[in-house]
Design goal:
The complex is a heterodimer of chains A (about 625) and B (about 400). Chain A is α+β, with helices and mostly antiparallel strands and about 625 residues long. Chain A folds into two domains: about 190 residues, Alpha-Beta Complex (Penicillin-binding protein 2a (Domain 2)); about 350 residues, Beta-lactamase (3-Layer(aba) Sandwich), CATH 3.40.710. Chain A has 24 helices and 19 strands. In chain A, the strands form six sheets. In chain A, strands 2, 3, 4, 5 and 10 form a five-stranded mixed sheet that branches. Chain A has a five-stranded antiparallel sheet with strand order 12-11-19-18-17, sandwiched between helices. In chain A, a hairpin with a 5-residue loop joins strand 2 and strand 3. Chain A is elongated, with a radius of gyration of 35 Å. Chain B has a two-stranded antiparallel sheet. Chain B is mainly alpha-helical and about 400 residues long. Helices cover about 70% and strands about 0% of the residues of chain B. Chain B has one domain. In chain B, helix 12 packs across helix 14. The chains are: A alpha+beta (about 625), B mainly alpha (about 400). The interface between A and B is large, with 43 and 46 residues.
Chain lengths: ~625, ~400
């Protein structure tokens, strides 16, 4: 039998063991607390914040676009839509069933809604119906108590009053695609439309505005407890385009059924007064939600109506390039403007024979007549003497072969070839014949109609590096820097361009504006799309009208007006339009006349400005 | 009931000889006032947390918590000065009464869901809570009577195990896994302290391991779900695992010094379940941080240390076993609750003593502490003559 003392000692031992165990357990619990609260504290803090804070976004109104006189090019019209918020609806399928009983939802639509619900955060509402009529809206609104998570909201639809006429200027808006997602939460909003073309696209960020944002504290079941912060966001900026909507419509219509582009510039500040491209499309289709058939028709049309040919189309400039060659020759001292060459109708270099467009030749021609009558042989001569590299350098100063930097999407750079380019592109050395061909704007040379207008503007604005722009800023741009061409050289070329329109042998003498004060200068171009073989030349070159459309020449024209104090430059490219003097020149003439009589380059601080200001007030209010 | 008392009464010798009187001043001095202060501090922290849980209001919880503690404190002191011998003599009676109440709950409350309480009007009495102390008291007496070597004898160990198992089974049937575990662990600890041979615990452990799969099959679905969820909370983050995950988020987000009293976002935005009862420690951790949590754990450690001191100073086997039985029960409450909210133990519904809202658990532990204080007051009484 143990003594009480022994019993007490045993008790002491066991109690000590027990205490040690308890101590260990408490130490373990403390360590766990340290692990949760200190080591992983940040993680749990984030989780707790995520738990309690929801951010709700509201789309701002998209900015309106006006033309330079305050006429609307893109506006917002009121419209109604039905939204469903998966979070609030709880059982999305059941909610859609109930909604379906009031306003039908097609199975495809339903699938889209469910797909979107899966992709988005569950507090982001999804549009189930767009642009419902009043009856349907009223029915949905009357049933809202039985439709948790369903809301009817007033939204706006983008409307383009000028429709087809300004499509290539303003572009259009469409729903956000996956590749548009930049992390900007506004892009997750169901009714958001973003710019997909034209100014809508290039100025999308400004037009879009900043989403209103409400940070709300929610409890465990997602109910908003209170608003923590609200950022009212900002409505999209109101833009004033440089375009004169009526001149734009005029230019667009003037092309008729023909495809091509017309650009009118203010030569001093680069304002694009008109930029037509044919064929065109109705941008309103996209605001409605374009149907698959409509989209297929637009995107597969061989004439590419969605393509803005003014900045994306690339064409050999043909004879409109000759002023660049002339200025290059003068600059490098190859010729004086008085120096004459003999044109026999053909120019031989080695085994090569290079023809003038006029079979019999022009006889003795100096620079003025060479431009006015567009003598090819004269330009073969001087181009060969300049050399391709120096010629290319001059061309680039006129904005050719490089993007103009205009605020429009999908601008092509065109192409001005030189020796290093050919070396890297074809691994072949440059051929002298290629210089000659380039001297008449053929061969590798490619330009966009916008570049041709910029080139012309730079020749007649005193040789300044003006750049084109689609949207007017707060202030006029600074006077562009000079390009380093002496005024006498520029004047010689400008006189040649006047000769084109006024000389008895000028290639576009029939297209001159009769009114003396509005008279213009210009240059025609007819660029070959096919190669004329030696045999065909012997038998007689086939007439354009006899060729299939695809093989017909492009018809080009560049011009400026008025003669004594130029303000406008124009470029016209008519695809497969045949002779430049017969087709493009009259169009260029009509557009320049319209621009001058309308005073398109004027900036109306008066009527137009107050119209714009009123519209801005309306938008903000 | 009578059969129980009868079988134990058969082994009972003559009543204890009269005790040497100790004067009142000494008795008052022997009360462990530091213990009383510590437990009051813990209860005050509890009231503060319940005030926060009520959304910055004394209603519905904090005020009643304070009143109940005050009433309990009086009971505690009455027990302290009531005389250890009196409690010794009432040990089996108390156990019997609690057992009867448990049976009543089982029969009368056989409605839907878990039935654990008897509605007394002023409070809901949870007999299973009272049983924890009644069991400690009865076991202490049984093992005191058996003497230093008695614990290992079959006619003592058998009834002792029966004393533990009978209420545990009833509680498990309610079903209340947490209380059942607490009863068994508390009872076995007393057997260990009373000197039952080591090897017997080895055999018991082996048997328990073998019986685990069988026990699993007796568990209710929700109990199994709790255990499975505990193993892997992410199994069902919005269902069964939700509480554990949200509790860990709340606790973890508190950081070192917490978000401040009344500032807990998880608890105030209802992400935290049962923030005023089982998960009050989580809320404490969220609002007062690691510092607050460690401080509360330290207070509990101090409280338990004082109970150990009482046990070591006691001249009687009964006193020692009773004090450490109470201390261990208190420890088990704290350890299980804190493990539970930190994702270290399944959610079994054990409150945090003196901090969680809930009348019976606090009353039970105050009775326990009152008995421990009685051990302190009457520590010089060896109650020797009682031994065979």
């Amino acid at each position: 039998m143990s003594s009480p003392q022994e019993d007490r000692r045993r008790f002491g031992r066991r109690a000590f063991l027990l205490a040690a165990g308890k101590g260990l357990l408490f130490a373990g619990l403390s360590a766990r607390m340290y692990q949760l609260q200190v080591i992983h504290g940040d993680k749990y803090e984030t989780l707790a914040e995520d738990n309690r804070i929801n951010v709700k976004y509201f789309a701002p109104r998209r900015g309106v676009i006006f033309d330079r006189f305050g006429r609307p090019l893109a506006e917002n019209k009121r419209s109604y839509r039905v939204l469903i918020t998966p979070e609030a609806a709880r059982d999305l399928n059941a909610a859609l069933d109930r909604l379906h009983a009031i306003v039908p939802i097609s199975p495809e639509e339903r699938e889209r809604i469910l797909r979107q619900a899966k992709r988005n955060a569950k507090f982001i509402p999804i549009a189930t119906h767009d642009q419902l009529d009043w009856d349907a809206i009223a029915r949905v609104a009357a049933h809202t108590p039985e439709l948790p998570g369903v809301d009817v909201v007033e939204t706006s639809r983008r409307v383009y009053p000028e429709a087809e006429a300004s499509a290539h200027v303003v572009g259009y808006v469409g729903p956000v695609a996956k590749e548009d997602l930049t992390g900007d939460p506004i892009l997750g909003l169901p009714d958001l439309r973003i710019g997909k073309g034209g100014v809508e696209r290039s100025h999308d960020l400004a037009l879009r505005g900043r989403a209103a944002e409400a940070k709300v504290e929610v409890n465990a079941i997602g109910r908003v407890v209170r608003e923590l912060e609200r950022d009212p966001g900002a409505v999209g900026a109101v833009l004033t385009s440089t375009v004169d909507a009526e001149l734009q419509r005029f230019a667009q219509n003037r092309m008729g059924e023909q495809t091509g582009a017309v650009v009118v510039l203010n030569i001093h500040n680069g304002d694009v007064l008109a930029m037509a491209s044919n064929p065109t499309y109705d941008p309103n289709l996209f605001s409605h939600g374009i149907t698959d058939d409509e989209w297929r028709a637009l995107s597969t049309d061989p004439l590419a109506p969605m393509n803005n040919k003014a900045v994306s189309g690339q064409y050999a400039p043909g004879s409109t390039f000759k002023m660049v060659v002339a200025l290059s020759a003068l600059e490098h001292g190859i010729v004086s403007s008085k120096k004459a060459f003999f044109c026999s109708g053909v120019h031989k270099v080695g085994k090569g024979r290079f023809h003038c467009w006029r079979r019999g030749g022009h006889g003795w021609v100096a620079m003025h007549d060479a431009i006015a009558q567009s003598c090819d042989v004269y330009f073969y001569e001087i181009a060969r003497k300049i050399g391709i590299n120096r010629l290319a350098e001059t061309a680039r100063r006129f904005g050719l072969g490089v993007p103009t930097g205009i605020d429009l999407p999908a601008e092509s750079s065109g192409l001005i070839p030189d020796k290093p380019w050919k070396k890297t592109r074809f691994k072949d050395p440059w051929q002298i014949g290629e210089t000659l061909i380039a001297g008449i704007g053929q061969g590798f040379v490619l330009t966009t109609p916008m570049q041709l207008a910029v080139m012309t503007a730079r020749m007649v604005n005193g040789g300044r590096a003006v750049t084109p722009r689609m949207v007017r800023g707060e202030a006029d741009p600074p006077t562009p820097p000079g390009l380093g061409f002496p005024p006498s050289h520029l004047a010689a070329v400008a006189r040649g361009m006047r000769g084109v329109m006024t000389d008895s042998l000028g290639t576009a003498r029939e297209a001159q504006i009769p009114s003396r004060a509005l008279r213009m200068g210009g240059k025609t171009g007819t660029s070959q799309v096919r190669r004329i073989t030696r045999e065909e030349r012997r038998k007689g070159v086939r007439k354009n009208e006899d060729l299939p459309r695809k093989e017909r020449d492009h018809s080009l024209f560049v011009g400026y007006a008025p003669l004594n104090a130029p303000r406008y430059a124009v470029s016209v490219v008519i695809e497969h339009g045949g002779s430049g003097s017969k087709n493009a020149a009259p169009i260029g003439r009509d557009v320049l006349l319209e621009a001058q009589t309308r005073g398109s380059a004027e900036w109306h601080g008066g009527a137009g400005q107050s119209a714009i200001e009123a519209a801005i007030r309306r938008e903000r209010g | 009931m009578q059969r129980w008392r009868g079988s134990i009464a058969a082994a009972r010798p003559t009543p204890l000889p009269p005790m040497r009187p100790v004067d009142m001043a000494t008795r008052i001095a022997r009360v462990d006032w530091l213990l009383v202060l510590t437990v009051s501090a813990i209860a005050a922290i509890g009231a503060a947390m319940l005030y926060s849980a009520g959304g910055g209001s004394a209603t519905p919880w904090a005020g009643r918590h304070g009143v109940r503690y005050a009433v309990g404190l009086v009971i505690m002191l009455v027990l302290a000065f009531g005389g250890l011998r009196r409690w010794y003599s009432m040990a089996y009676l108390g156990y019997g009464a609690c057992f009867l109440l448990l049976v009543v709950v089982e029969v009368a409350g056989s409605g839907s869901g878990a039935t654990r309480w008897i509605d007394l009007g002023v409070m809901r009495l949870q007999p299973s809570e009272l049983m924890k102390i009644a069991l400690v008291l009865a076991l202490a007496r049984l093992l005191h009577e058996a003497g230093p070597d008695g614990a290992d004898r079959l006619h003592v160990l058998g009834p002792a195990l029966l004393l533990i198992a009978a209420p545990a089974m009833l509680v498990l049937k309610q079903p209340d896994l947490g209380t059942a575990v607490l009863l068994c662990a508390g009872g076995v600890t007393i057997l260990f302290l009373a000197g039952v041979a080591w090897w017997k615990f080895g055999i018991a452990a082996a048997l328990a391991a073998g019986a685990a799969p069988i026990a699993w099959s007796f568990l209710h679905d929700y109990q199994r779900a709790r255990v499975l969820t505990f193993m892997e909370p992410e199994r069902d983050p919005l269902g069964a695992g939700y509480h554990i995950i949200q509790s860990m988020i709340a606790l973890g987000s508190g950081g070192t010094f917490g978000k401040g009293w009344l500032q807990g976002t998880q608890s105030h935005l209802s992400f935290l379940p049962e923030k005023h009862t089982d998960f009050v420690f989580t809320m404490l951790g969220e609002e007062l941080g690691l510092a607050g949590g460690l401080f509360v754990l330290a207070l509990f450690a101090l409280l338990i240390a004082r109970i150990y001191r009482i046990a070591f100073l006691s001249e009687s086997r009964f006193g020692r076993l009773l004090a450490l039985g109470v201390g261990t029960t208190l420890f088990l409450y704290v350890a299980i609750n804190v493990s539970m909210v930190m994702g270290l133990a399944p959610v079994v519904g054990v409150p945090l003593p003196f901090i969680s809202y809930g009348g019976t658990a606090m009353l039970t532990l105050q009775i326990g502490l009152g008995l421990a204080l009685a051990v302190a007051v009457d520590r010089s009484d060896p109650m020797e003559k009682n031994r065979r």
